[in-house]
Amino acid sequence: MNAPHLILSEPQTVPDTLARILADKYEEVRARSAATPLSEIERQARTADRPRDFVTALCQAVADGRVGLIAEIKRASPSGGLIRDPFEPATLAEDYARAGATCLSVLTDAPYFQGHAEHLKAARAACTLPVLRKDFMVHPWQVFEARAMGADCILIIMAALSDQQAEELEDIARSLDMGVLAEVHDRAELERALGLQTRLIGVNNRNLKTLQTDLATSEELVPLVPADRIPIAESGIRNPSDVRRMADVGARCILVGESLMRQPDVTAAAAELVQAL
Ligand SMILES: O=C(O)c1ccccc1NCC(=O)[C@H](O)[C@H](O)COP(=O)(O)O
C-alpha cells in the first residue's frame, strides 16, 4: 500500500497523551497494513456480514423516550489502569444486552486499553446489538479493518484529525454502511464535527490533558448540538443521578465504560442506568 497519509492537523495542539497514542497507532497501522494490504482488507470488509444499524438503534431509543445506553467493554485504560480481571467479552455482551443496553462499544486498542479485535468479534457474536469499534482511527485502512472484524460503527475523534481526514474516514464508513460517532471535547471541535454528515455527536467529558472527567463539559456542549443531531454524553458517568444530569441538558444517549466494568454484577448496574429516567 502507499505510505499512510496520516498528518496530524495541528500537532502542537494535540494533548500529550493523545499525541503519544496517535504516534503509536501510526506505527501499528504501518505494520498491520504491511501484513495485510489495503486491497485485501477492503475485500474482507466488503464481504463481511451485513452491518447492524447503530444510528437507528440510538434514534429509536430516543424516540421511545428510553435511555440509549452504549455499554462499553473495556479491560484497562490510561486513567484507570487494569479495570476488570478476569475479563470475558462474550459474557459481558450478554449481560449488557440483558440489561437493556442499546449498543455496545468495544475497545480494540492493545497498548493503552488491553483491547483486541477478538474482544469485538466475541462480544458481537454473543448478542444482536450494534457494536462500535472503540479505537483511534487515523487511516482509511483501519475503517476497512473495523468492518472486516464485524464493527458496525467507528469513532472519529475530532481532536486527532483534520477536517479532511475526518471526512475521508466518514466517507469510507458510509460506503460500508457503517455508522460514525464524531467525538468532541470543546466548542471548536463541535463546530468542526457538525461539518460531517453523521447524526451522532459524542461529547467526551474526559480532559485529554489531565484524563480527569467532568460532566460540566456535556452541560456546556450538549445544548449547542442542533436538534437534527443526537448528542451522546461520554465518560465519567457513574450512577443514575449522572444519567439524569445528562438528560437534563439534552443527552438521553450515554456511553459508559469504567463504572460498569468495576461492578461485579454488570447486568444490574447497567439496568440501573437504563431505568434512570
Ligand atoms: O479512558 C481513558 O483513560 C482514556 C484516555 C485517553 C483517551 C481516551 C480514553 N478513554 C476513551 C473513552 O472515551 C472512554 O473509554 C469512554 O468514553 C467511556 O468512559 P468511562 O465511562 O469513563 O470509562
From TrEMBL:
Catalytic reaction list: 1-(2-carboxyphenylamino)-1-deoxy-D-ribulose 5-phosphate + H(+) = (1S,2R)-1-C-(indol-3-yl)glycerol 3-phosphate + CO2 + H2O
Annotated EC: 4.1.1.48
This protein's UniProt keywords: Amino-acid biosynthesis, Aromatic amino acid biosynthesis, Decarboxylase, Lyase, Tryptophan biosynthesis
Pathway linked to the protein: Amino-acid biosynthesis; L-tryptophan biosynthesis; L-tryptophan from chorismate: step 4/5
Enzyme class: lyase
Residue span, Indole-3-glycerol phosphate synthase domain: 18-273
GO molecular function, one term: indole-3-glycerol-phosphate synthase activity
Family: Belongs to the TrpC family.
NCBIfam families xrefs: PRK00278.1-2, PRK00278.1-6, PRK00278.2-4
Protein name per Swiss-Prot or TrEMBL: Indole-3-glycerol phosphate synthase
Gene: trpC
